[in-house]
Design goal:
50 residues, single chain, mainly alpha
């Protein structure tokens, strides 16, 4: 994973979860994905949601 990340020349961001082995952060990763999508779509944290 790190070799591909280091090779990629475009914009990038990585999170290393120090627990859960292959679980990838569990629920914390889901929250991170939602934050990333809001950032990608130009929505501020909490904007556009009820």
């Amino acid at each position: 994973m790190f070799a591909a990340y280091n090779h990629w020349q475009g914009p990038k961001e990585i999170t290393v979860w120090p627990w859960n082995n292959h679980e990838g952060g569990g629920g914390y990763q889901s929250e991170e994905q939602v934050r990333y999508l809001h950032k990608l779509l130009g929505e501020g944290e909490g904007e556009g949601r009820d």
